[in-house]
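Intended use. Records like the one below are meant for learning the mapping from a protein sequence to its folded structure. Do not use them to infer anything beyond what is encoded.
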Amino acid sequence: MSTKKEKKGKRKNKIQLRRKVKYDEKIRRPFIVRESSTAYGDDYSSSITKQKRLKKFYSIISLFSGCGGLDLGFVGNFEFLKKRYPQNGFKVIWANDIDEPSCQTFANYFKHDVVCGDITQILDGRFAARLFDQPIPKNTDIVLGGFPCQDFSHAGKRQGFNSKRGLLYQSMVEVVRRTKPLVFVAENVRGLLTMNGGEAIQIIIKDFEKLGYHTVYKLLTAADYGVPQTRERVIIVGTRRDKLPPFEHPKPILDEKNWVNLMRAIGDLEKMDEGEAPNHYWSKAKKNNGQGNTMVSAEKPGPTMRTEHHGNIEYHWNGKRRLSAREAARIQSFPDNFIFYPSTSSAYKQIGNAVPPVLAWHVATAIEKFLDENLK
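Structure written out for the chain above:
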């Protein structure tokens, strides 16, 4: 016969189990992330210029949004290193990512709800109605998607199509099939070009071309566009054959001789105390023989800000500490009022996952000009 103490313990275990199930259900199924009460920063809804209000915006569905680097480049209206990047003629109408901290960062900065959850479940209609009230729009002008890239990366395990993440580009293909946008833009790592002997990129291109799109790709170096980082990324752009010609990627605005170096990008942060600026906290991971244990150079752009470094981010050129999350954000060309939530480790991950906003802005302005010229 059970004692009162045993019965109490069983009841406690049942309560804990119920709580765990409810929490897991929230993580598994898509739900909405909205701006938190602790958010601060610019209000995008009130900062659109009069000129842009008079013009029709091109609508965007944003997939694999992360914290919003690609979206920020397309929306525009931000400042980086005392240079203004004007508002572009694009508006995000729906955004999705599976990482909740990234979704919170996105929602807090853009003042825009984000659908947080697995895109494959959303496309299959597998979600709880009480948690999810924003189905994917039936139509849009643009589909953006930096589909997960770690499985194609030289720095990762390069599992490619042998992993579930490596096949997530197919979800973007499905959204393009359903919504029939004028243009889609996909971003990925350089390793995509060499995966499976170059076959991977050709499979992806053919899958988009089957939907009726001119599909072109090019390897862009972020430093060529004013980003203080030698990051290289493949930018894939598709344009509808029945309405548009093939797209030409924007030409570089800088060459190696005048790339932005780290002294200019983050020099003012060197003597700031930890926490003196938003996200200016750094990893205390001890030095080891793995990646991220070299010192950056003040006279050169930074190396690629990685996602999976587990605290082993590169050391500052002073050798006293590792780069802070704010310094990593600067190296990625995020404006200082772009705040990452909720922790330093999460901020590092979000920053490493992102498309540099300044690079994205140059791609976006080229696409806006391309659409305006060809849709007259």
